[in-house]
C-alpha cells in the first residue's frame, strides 16, 4: 500500500500547479482523501479533504477559492489543483487516505483527524 505524490516545483506568485498522488496496492473508491502541508517552522495543516461519498469537502480558509481537490477512481489518483499561488503557500505537500472514517464524515473532521496512509511529500515553492 503506497501513495506517491508528485507535481511540486518552483512557481511564481500568481501561478498554478497541479499536484497528483497515485495510489498503489489499493483503490481510492472507499477512501476519504486529503492534502496536507507543512511549511518551514510550522505545524502540518490540513489543506483540503473530501469524504469517500463525495458529499463533504473541506478547504482551509487560506486556500478557499484557489485550490480544488479531486480524485479519479479509475486512475487511482487524487489531485490538488492550485491557482493564484502565494509565497505563503510554500510548503511540503502530503497526500493521505483513510478508509476507517464514515463515508459521510465531514471534510473538516477528516482534515483534523489522523489519516491512515500517507505519501511522501512534494515541495512547492512560490517565489519570484
Summarize the structure.
Helices cover 5% and strands 46% of the residues.
Protein traits:
128 residues; 7-stranded mixed sheet; 46% strand; single chain; 1 helix; mainly beta; 4-stranded antiparallel sheet
Count of helical stretches: 1
Q: Return the structural class.
A: mainly beta
- Please give the share of residues in helix: under 10%
Radius of gyration in whole Å, from Cα? 14 Å
How is the main sheet built? 7 strands, mixed
Give the strand tally. Answer: 11
Average predicted local confidence, pLDDT: 95
Residues in β-strands, percent? over 45%
Looking at the structure, what is the overall shape?
globular
Stretches where pLDDT is under 50 for at least 5 consecutive residues are none
Order of helices and strands: EEEEEEEEEHEE
Query: What is the terminal-to-terminal distance?
Result: 37 Å
